[in-house]
Amino acid sequence: MTGTPDTRLIVLRGNSAAGKSSVAEQIRDRHGSGIALVGQDTLRRVVLRERDTPGAANIGLIGSVARYALDHGFHVIVEGILYADRYGPMLDALRRAHRGRTHFYYLDVPFEETVRRHAGKPCAAELGEAELREWYRPLDLLPGDWESIVEAADSLEDTVARVMEESGLASG
After folding, report:
1. Residue 139 lies inside a defined structural domain of this protein
2. To the nearest 5 percent, what fractions of the chain are helix, strand and coil?
3. For residue 65, what are the contacts with CB-CB under 8 A and spacing of at least 6?
4. CATH number of the domain that 153 lies in?
5. High-pLDDT (> 90) share of the chain, %
6. Strands 147-151 and 8-14
7. C-alpha distances in angstroms, 91 versus 13, 67, 94, 113?
8. Does residue 3 sit within a domain?
């Protein structure tokens, strides 16, 4: 078992430029200290400098960092593309092991909107539409019925409020 009955685990998944990092940062800013952000991009690209492939080392590292933070009393937000076929078993094991409230969200953004949002990101010049198309997986939901869908039309403000309310972070 990991975490405590008081810790919260939130997983934000979706395609590139879906808004996962923005939602995570806003939740953390509004809640204050006590939330660990476990970003797939940070652990995979910065810490390990590895490609996203089946069985890659970052998969276990994401789970280990999340468990460590939960075991030390932090609420945890895991965010990233986190393809269902590659990351699903690790995420399911984390979900089953967590003693507190756990909430999974899939940010569902159509490809055309992904391209539009990506154009405004700092890395837009480095990665183009071809890379986005290669990575894009429509509605890549985890097996089981424990992931909530956030529609592209839902605003950042509404999404943050929803996640905070449903997870219990809004009240404390």
Report:
1. yes
2. 45, 20, 35
3. 36, 38, 43
4. 3.40.50.300
5. 78
6. unpaired
7. 11, 11, 5, 27
8. no
Number of domains comprising the chain: 1
Evaluate whether residue 107 is within a structural domain.
Answer: yes
Look at residue 165 and tell me if it is in a domain. Answer: yes
3-state secondary structure 3-23: CCCCCEEEEEEECCCCCHHHH
Write out the residue range of the structural domain in which residue 103 sits: 8-171
Q: Alpha helix (H) ranges present in 72-104?
A: 84-97
Q: Mean pLDDT throughout 105-112?
A: 93
Task: Provide the whole-model pTM.
Answer: 0.93
The one-character DSSP state at 154 is S
For 149-155, the CB contacts below 8 A with 24+ separation are 149/105, 149/106, 149/108, 150/14, 150/105, 150/106, 150/107, 150/108, 151/108, 152/18, 152/107, 152/108, 152/109, 152/110, 152/113
CA atoms within 13 A on the CB side of 22: 14
Rounded to an integer, the average pLDDT of 63-76 is 98
Two tokens, residue 39: 């970003």
Q: How far apart are CA 19 and CA 152, in angstroms?
A: 9
